[in-house]
Amino acid sequence: MAVNGQYTAALVGCGRIGYSLGLDPKREQPASHTMALLDNRRVRLVAGCDSDIEKLSVWHKAVGTARTFQRSEDMYRELRPDIITVAVPEDFHKSEALAAIAARPRLVILEKPVALNSREAQDIKNASTEAGVPVMINHERRFAEDYKRARKCLSEIGTLQSIYASLSSSLCLYDRKGESTGACSLFHDGTHLVDAVMYFLGDPPSLGQPVLTGVYKDEKGGVRQLSAHWSAESCPDITVTMSGRSRYFGFEIQLNGTEGRVCIGNSYLKVYRRKDSPLYTGFYSLVCDDEAGSVGKTRYFSNMVQNAVDFLDGKSPLLSPIDTGIKDLLILEDIKTQLYR
Q1: Cα–Cα dist 245/38, whole Å
Q2: Residue 111 forms beta bridges with which residues?
Q3: Element containing residue 41 per DSSP (H, E)
Q4: What pLDDT sits at residue 194?
Q5: Farthest-apart Cα atoms in the chain, separation
Q6: Angle between helix 190-201 and helix 322-339 axes, rounded to 10 deg
Q7: Which residues is 108 bridged to in the sheet?
Q8: Do the beta carbons of residue 178 and residue 172 sit within 8 Å?
Q9: What does the alpha-carbon distance between residue 334 and residue 118 come to, in Å, rounded to a whole number?
Q10: What is the DSSP letter of 268?
Q11: Which pTM does this prediction carry?
Q12: Are 289 and 261 in contact (CB under 8 A)?
């Protein structure tokens, strides 16, 4: 049970997603684990840990009363928080997640992707099961109000015909060197795109083997562009397109039904419905429903922490459990395998 109505929390990793994104004036706040934990009145942030003493010092000045540690093992010897959030680089996900699980909190929140690969992710899940410590993955769009609205609208656009999901950035999608550190956009950012597609599909067991087209490699052999295609029982035409050649950042998903369309991306949601055509007599057209697309704040980070609280209160299941994160990794690994066949 929570003490005085609050659950205690500790943060491992006080860097970008752990803390500093919460200072970005352009982002919807809270935008970091620190700020989201502090924002929830049911949570008391009691400690932070980072091997970088400068980052830790900056974090401590902002948080104030929380204790600081440079090694997570030292923190776990002295504290037993209810929630441990792990927000370290991907190459440390397995070691820090296993250490957090061994400390026996009531819940571990693990930053995406689950691990460098599905094998390491399965090791984390096995430890979680053995210790009885649930693990939630921060695939934030599962908690966002706009994505929840978009998923609800799927029942209003007829039978789902196709999904087109795209990610655009200037980052290399994949090279063998970057795989060992997590410095591959295919996994680091692609996990969000694939997870969102799986979320809209209702989290099927798998998508099967992809068919790749449009693969482009740079002069060093790094993959800079690809499209992956699947056909599933719930949707016959699924395409995920990623570009590491773009001079902008974009994240967009278009869901086409027999009677409408849902389009969602960073900062927008548009819902189109079948109406009498204003252009052609005797025809129907898709007309944008402005009211359906009006959401306001998405509360993507706030809702994630609230889901953790609701889970600990026994009011809700985890909306982004480790199993969904592992399925995402397996899909991305299937894409990687096809790149080198």
Answers
A1: 37
A2: 138
A3: none
A4: 98
A5: 74
A6: 120
A7: 84, 135
A8: yes
A9: 11
A10: E
A11: 0.95
A12: no
CA angle 7, 68, 66 (to 5 degrees): 40
Per the document, the length of the chain is 341
Angle 301-306-308 (CA atoms, 0-180°, nearest 5)?
100
Cα–Cα distance, 187 to 263 (Å, whole number): 23
In 3D space, the residue among 197, 162, 184, 177 whose CA is nearest the CA of residue 327 turns out to be 197
Alpha helix (H) ranges present in the chain?
A: 33-39, 53-63, 72-78, 93-102, 118-131, 145-153, 176-179, 185-188, 190-201, 300-312, 322-339
Q: If pLDDT is split at 50, 70 and 90, which confidence band does 3 have?
A: confident
Under DSSP, the state recorded for 154 is G
Note the pLDDT tens digit of each residue in 109-129: 999 999 999 999 999 999 999
DSSP at 27? S
Percent of the chain at pLDDT > 70 equals: 100
Query: Long-range contacts: 273-282, Cβ < 8 Å, 24+?
Result: 273/156, 273/157, 274/158
Tell me how far CA of residue 336 lies from CA of 70, 187, 192, 210, 271, in angstroms: 35, 10, 16, 10, 33
DSSP state, residue 143? T
Burial of 229: CB neighbours in 10 Å, binned 0-12, 13-18, 19+:
middle
> Do the Cβ atoms of 42 and 2 come closer than 8 Å?
yes
Residue pair 93/184 in contact (Cβ under 8 Å)? The answer is no
pLDDT at 1: 59
Residues 6+ apart with CB under 8 A from 153: 260, 262, 271, 292
pLDDT in tens, 198-226: 999 999 999 999 999 999 999 999 999 99
pLDDT (tens digit per residue) in 136-159? 999 999 999 999 999 999 999 999
The pLDDT tens digits of the residues spanning 244-301 come to 999 999 999 999 999 999 999 998 999 999 999 999 999 999 999 988 877 889 999 9
